[in-house]
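TICKET: design request
STATUS: open
ATTACHED STRUCTURE:
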């Protein structure tokens, strides 16, 4: 499976993947998925939002156990983020057939469309639409960098955009959704485990900081006369690092704009965008409040006015405790202590958890690097992931 997927959408220059929604590379990934489904005698279908499904058993029977992930990528993404979950799903089914188990519930493997949001700027479009967390109106307004709308892109790829929208009947037929994913951090590497269970997706948000100072000549303005917003910005970046470190959270200023942006001008305005995430809401609130306070104190010293605007926020997603405990029981049956860990990254499983009992398995990523061509997972760990997923599916669907 990896051999067939490896060349699709791979950029020879960067070595990374550019599998954006509804492009030729995406179509090749979808063809691959369909071929995998049909070669195993599974019933193949796409849903009204273009997500792909491969069914063993009656799709309409209800209480289905579904596993899967996504095949699209970020710009110059790695090989594992997404595809590891889909490949492992098919491999786990093969393993269960080898074991000769009998299924008492329908089983499905899914590929959710446009998880990364690389083309239209919104992540998890396929699962968001299905779960009713993205309205049809909003979906119609999504445009890529060339001004092509989501419906236009879908149509060009041979899908009917007229059907998109919430799909409660389909989600109601799912009894459990389990997504296996490469870990996007080093928790498993540090604990020495190949596989872990997700506890929750951290709450996260984005805040825009506007630092208003006074533009002036970089050569003739005495230091004491300056109102330099770059200084306040720099102090705020350091404060963000300090607050995050103290709280065990993360905080990042990854984007900045400067006016007038001249090399010999003291800026009049610096805008910085803060992304911050923490294990729980209270911790995140503390970090955000600490950074804002530090920015305002520094601004007073510098004669700079600081304004903070929250641009987006996603609360914590707790995966269903009963299903999580069941996974821990299944994987811990031989006395193994399977680590349970939170993550700072979003997933389709997080979106679906509002409608369906949902769980996630993580496979060790020895460097923690993700969204990069350097993203990796060891072969033994991938095999361990398939074994764990097969055990979970057997435990859930073969009672
Ligand atoms: Zn992913």
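STATUS: resolved
RESOLUTION: sequence designed for all positions
ATTACHED SEQUENCE:
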């Amino acid at each position: 499976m990896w051999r067939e997927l490896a060349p699709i959408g791979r950029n020879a220059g960067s070595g990374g993947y550019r599998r954006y929604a509804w492009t030729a590379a995406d179509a090749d990934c979808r063809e691959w998925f369909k071929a995998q489904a049909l070669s195993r005698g599974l019933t193949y279908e796409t849903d009204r939002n273009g997500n792909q499904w491969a069914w063993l058993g009656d799709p309409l029977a209800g209480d289905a156990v579904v596993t899967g992930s996504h095949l699209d990528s970020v710009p110059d993404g790695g090989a594992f983020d997404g595809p590891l979950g889909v490949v492992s799903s098919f491999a786990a089914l093969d393993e269960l057939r080898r074991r000769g188990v009998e299924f008492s519930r329908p089983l499905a493997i899914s590929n959710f469309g446009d998880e990364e949001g690389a083309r239209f700027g919104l992540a998890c479009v396929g699962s968001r639409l299905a779960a009713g967390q993205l309205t049809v109106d909003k979906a119609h307004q999504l445009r890529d960098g060339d001004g092509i709308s989501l419906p236009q892109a879908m149509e060009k790829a041979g899908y009917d955009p007229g059907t998109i929208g919430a799909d409660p009947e389909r989600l109601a037929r799912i009894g459990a959704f389990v997504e296996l994913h490469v870990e996007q951090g080093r928790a498993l590497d540090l604990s020495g485990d190949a596989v872990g269970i997700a506890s929750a997706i951290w709450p996260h948000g984005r805040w825009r900081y506007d630092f208003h100072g006074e533009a002036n000549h970089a050569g003739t303005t005495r230091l004491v006369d300056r109102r330099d917003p770059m200084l306040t910005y720099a102090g705020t970046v350091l404060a963000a690092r300090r607050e995050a470190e103290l709280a065990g959270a993360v905080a990042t200023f990854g984007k900045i704009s400067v006016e007038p942006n001249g090399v010999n001008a003291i800026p009049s305005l610096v805008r910085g965008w803060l992304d911050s995430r923490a294990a729980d809401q209270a911790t995140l609130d503390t970090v955000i409040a600490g950074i804002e306070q530090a920015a305002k104190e520094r601004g007073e010293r510098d004669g700079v006015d600081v304004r903070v605007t929250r641009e987006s926020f996603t609360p914590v997603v707790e995966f269903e405790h009963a299903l999580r405990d069941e996974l821990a029981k299944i994987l811990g049956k031989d006395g193994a202590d399977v680590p349970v860990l939170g993550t700072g990254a979003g997933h389709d499983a997080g979106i679906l958890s509002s409608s369906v009992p949902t769980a996630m398995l993580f496979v060790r990523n020895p460097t923690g690097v993700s969204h990069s061509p350097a993203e990796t997972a060891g072969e033994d760990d991938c095999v361990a992931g398939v074994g764990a997923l097969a055990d979970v599916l057997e435990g859930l669907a073969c009672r």
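CLOSING REMARK: Residues 2-202+316-397 form a domain with the Aminopeptidase fold (CATH 3.40.630.10). The CA atoms of residues 204 and 240 lie 15 Å apart.
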